[in-house]
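Cast an eye over this sequence plus tokens and walk me through the fold:

***
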Amino acid sequence: VPATRVELTVSCRQLLDRDTFSKSDPLCVLYTQRPGSHQWREFGRTEVIDNSLNPDFLRKFVLDYCFEERQNLRFDLYDVDSKSPDLSKHDFLGQAFCTLGEIVGSAGSRLEKPLTGIPGKKCGTIILLAEELGNCRDVATLQFCANKLDKKDFFGKSDPFMVFYRSNEDGTFTICHKTEVVRNTLNPVWAAFAIPVRALCNGDHDRAIKVEIYDWDRDGSHDFIGEFTTSYRELARGQSHFNVYEVVNPWKKMKKKKYLNSGTVTLLSFAVEAEHTFLDYIRGGTQLNFTVAIDFTASNGNPSQPTSLHYLSPFQLNAYSLALRAVGDIIQDYDSDKMFPALGFGAKVPPDGRVSHEFPLNGDASNPACRGIAGVLEAYQRSLRRVQLYGPTNFAPVVNHVARSAATVLDGSQYFVLLIITDGVISDMAQTKEAIVNAAKLPMSIIIVGVGQAEFDAMVELDGDDIRISSRGKVAERDIVQFVPFRDYMSGGPGAGLSMAGLAREVLAEIPDQLLSYMKARGIKPLSVSPMPSETPPP
């Protein structure tokens, strides 16, 4: 599935005036970076707007948006003085840097930033608005019944089912839906089914849709009863005399003069609604709350030894810090207060040296939140110096800690993401499974990053991609855990940045769908965001 496409609209207010006799003639140039590269490449230019310090550019930038990647953007503004495409021949008016996630994650997906880049001068502001391009996200719900179908079975009546095909440009047909089989009847009523409009007609409402009706046979040699054709436009008229179809078997028609039909199919109901996307919820104001839990158990090795996973080297970040940075840098764009609760587990904590499985890294039990990812890293490094690594490795307490917060906000306005960084040796598997099964009902996801060289079999089991996790016979209603082994991304040397981007991609890839699965299961629609009224330029 291609990434969502986002259209960026650019406006500026109070640009510098570089022209002596008239106002500036601004142009905006967008630069992007490839993942893992620091090189800026020109992506595109807006049109030039003559004599305006408050331009609203008409030409949009259309970008592929990936939640799980950090997509850096740079906007440069120029006052165009001639027809030359060479930017060095024009006056620079300032620039702004941001990520695509920052724009999308802002209220109403609208970000305002000051333009900078000319020392000692106020360069004005840039206003960026992101809108998701609807690639026909409508989903149609249809229900059909049939009357007096041909009897195909020697002993009982038929067991009918329908198969839907959409037509392609070249006149061939592609299967797009099969109904269930209704047993032993010539007058079946099939269950309503939902199908993306794209799948039914690929966006062309007049394209033929062919429907075939079969009598089901156990051995797979289903008997053809007949067929009819329609189109999305016809179906969209809903239940009416237009949507009663004669089921015709062309072979019978050729052979028998008196043949009328093999029964009729009637459309009972038709409804269409837009399928909501991750971006709809983010635009509607859903906030992602990010909590970090770090494994302080003795199996990580003595932090004062270079072999320890917690070793604090003056020259490079350890695996815990790298994983935290890679994931945190992306997720912080979606968290408006940039305050991240950070917990540790499996250590003996001062003052009394008791083992704790959910202690605040900042030492403040009443408010474990740290300011920004930098604040979390700092609190982590401070904790390492004041606690004693111990054990066992219990995940359930931190999962339940976040679940308690998530249980207080079930209305879709907040979604909680717990990042557990661990060396993977888990002691409370049964309790953790139970905690995850309970958390699957809540607006939360769990990311586990495994560091070190251990076997991570238990983590793979928690991930539940192949077999959905269960506890005491109860199966988790959603898959909310994503596990990634850090070592797969540990390439030292110049490519290290790229592998961190890869780690973040892998870790965050499932979050949008997990958020959607929660909202859908609870019937929560995104708060609609009214488009911002365009600002009136200052006089």
Summary: The chain has three domains: 4-133, 138-274, 286-340+403-522. Residues 372-386 form the longest helix (15 residues).
